[in-house]
Amino acid sequence: MRSSTPTGYWGPPTSTIDWCELNYEHSFYIAEFWNTISNSLFVLLGLYGLYRSIKMGFEPRFHLQFIGVMQCDETPMVWSILAWIYIVYNNEIEQIPIKNANNYVIAFLTTIGAIFTVVHAIYRFTTVFQVFFGVLARAVARSYVTSSLIGFAFWLMDYHYCHIVRELPINPQGHAWWHMFMGISTYHGPIFMQYVRMEQLKKKVRIHDTCIGIQTIVVENIGPDSPKKPKH
Question: Name one GO molecular function term (predicted).
Answer without folding.
Answer: metal ion binding
